């Protein structure tokens, strides 16, 4: 039996988080695409030898709730055939991942032949083929239209890079120099994280580390249940609407029944509208991840971000609905419904916690992908995600202008870098006056960014929402959102 020292447990938690953060810093320094190195559309995590999440870096929250199901699918495929020097990889939404652009990678860490951990990196790769540059088309109907689908496999086997897979990726992207640069950055950062995790495991000794990781997960569960116990019990039903599904059906009703009882909480989305097509909807893994991220915002920041936090949260969905699509549905633009899921969960929590929660964020994350050839005939692809409407008003202050949604957390791409890397001029970029909404405190101001393309035959793809339904406010009347006209 290992006696747990709370001080050492805290030191271990911080060391694991630092390992993940160091990997993210390395990605930023070595990646090629603006979406990764500037927007920071990536995440890092550490799991124990069994695949349970034990730490996460400062990254994109909705990536992290998908880490365990993605790793579980990889382990289910390979079984005992996971060896030192391997890197497992997948981007398949029907194998635990969320959409094709996000490639999940996992490197096992061994000490004296015993598997003690996995380090994980998730990068949003700007283009993996498909019918539309950038892979986020809202009107695709099947996953096969969206690009290269990578089932659970080994990107590296025994320290040897899978050159066949690398060539397949290279030949299935419109901007191979940049995408392959990001893939190599991802592998290099994994190597660094694995070396740090192995050093940590040797210093602690594998059997002691295992005991402390078990305790760290249990500790997170205890703290989470303690925090949930402080919230009022009750059942709240809350609805929001997506304008449409990308192919003309809508508005789409997303329904949540949130039940808080004692030290646990249940989010039931089973009454959401049936899926009819398009690519704006999402699979169950992504719905669960978004729900975790939203509930996390009302819990103490001191709670470790690991699998223990999830134990007190139950998420129910119904297969075939807008938030739990089934094969072979396209899911490339699933980020849109993710932001709507966030506002639904927070709207329900705002009903349970009146005068303590912020109002709904403005619209949704605005996504733009533009691709064509520059004056020298070279292919370019600019991918960018905006926090274009910022956050809703707080009970005691204005909303944060251009603030990121709690599930996204992406950074601004400087105008100068956009213009340096693409045949694009940004003619205007700034806040829009008087767009925050009326009330004791205003919501965030909207943003304007005007793009001017310097070459012809540019293919532009835009993802946005909230043209039909209004964001809800802090008051009880304002939270009772009415359905938009059909």
TrEMBL record:
One of its GO terms (biological process) is glutathione metabolic process. GO terms for cellular component: cytosol. It comes from the Bacteria. Residues 5-477 form the Hydantoinase B/oxoprolinase domain. One of its GO terms (molecular function) is 5-oxoprolinase (ATP-hydrolyzing) activity. This is Hydantoinase B/oxoprolinase family protein. The lineage of its organism: Bacteria, Pseudomonadati, Pseudomonadota, Alphaproteobacteria, Hyphomicrobiales.
């Amino acid at each position: 039996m290992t006696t747990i020292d709370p001080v050492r447990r805290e030191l271990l938690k911080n060391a694991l988080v630092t390992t993940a953060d160091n990997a993210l810093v390395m990605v930023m320094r070595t990646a090629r695409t603006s979406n990764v190195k500037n927007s920071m559309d990536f995440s890092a995590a550490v799991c124990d030898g069994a695949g349970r999440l034990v730490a996460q870096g400062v990254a994109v929250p909705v990536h992290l709730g998908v880490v365990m199901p993605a790793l579980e699918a990889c382990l289910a495929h390979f079984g005992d055939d996971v060896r030192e020097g391997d890197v497992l990889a997948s981007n398949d939404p029907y194998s635990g991942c969320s959409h094709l652009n996000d490639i999940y990678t996992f490197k096992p860490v061994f000490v004296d032949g015993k598997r003690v951990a996995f380090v994980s990196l998730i990068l949003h790769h700007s283009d993996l083929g498909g019918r539309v540059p950038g892979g986020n088309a809202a009107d695709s109907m099947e996953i096969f239209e969206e690009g290269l689908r990578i089932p659970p496999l080994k990107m590296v086997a025994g320290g040897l890079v899978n050159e066949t897979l690398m060539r397949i990726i290279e030949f299935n992207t419109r901007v191979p120099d940049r995408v392959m640069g990001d893939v190599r950055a991802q592998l290099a950062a994994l190597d660094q994280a694995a070396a740090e995790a192995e050093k940590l495991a040797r210093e602690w000794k594998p059997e002691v580390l295992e005991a402390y990781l078990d305790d760290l997960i249990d500790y997170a569960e205890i703290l989470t249940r303690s925090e949930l116990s402080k919230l009022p019990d009750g059942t709240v039903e809350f609805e929001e609407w997506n304008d449409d599904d990308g192919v003309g059906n809508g508005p789409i009703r997303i329904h949540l029944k949130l039940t808080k009882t004692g030290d646990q909480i249940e989010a039931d989305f089973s009454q959401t509208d049936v899926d009819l097509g398009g690519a704006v909807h999402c699979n169950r893994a992504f719905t669960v991840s978004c729900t975790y991220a939203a509930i996390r915002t009302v819990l103490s920041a001191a709670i470790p971000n690991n699998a223990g936090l999830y134990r007190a949260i139950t998420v129910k969905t119904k297969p075939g609905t807008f938030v739990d699509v089934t094969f072979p549905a396209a899911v490339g633009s699933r980020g849109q419904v993710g932001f709507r899921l966030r506002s639904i969960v927070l709207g329900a929590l705002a009903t349970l916690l009146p005068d303590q929660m912020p109002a709904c964020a403005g619209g949704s994350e605005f996504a733009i992908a533009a691709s064509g050839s520059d004056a020298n005939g070279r292919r370019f692809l600019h991918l960018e995600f905006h926090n274009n409407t910022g956050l809703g008003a707080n009970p005691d202050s204005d909303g944060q202008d251009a603030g990121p949604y709690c599930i996204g957390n992406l950074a601004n791409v400087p105008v100068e870098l956009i213009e340096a890397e693409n045949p694009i001029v940004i003619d205007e970029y700034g806040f829009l006056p008087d767009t925050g909404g009326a009330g004791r405190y205003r919501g965030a101001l909207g943003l304007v960014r005007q793009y001017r393309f310097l070459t012809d035959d540019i293919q532009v793809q835009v993802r946005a929402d909230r043209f039909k339904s209004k964001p809800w406010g802090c008051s009880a009347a304002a939270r009772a959102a009415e359905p938009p006209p059909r």
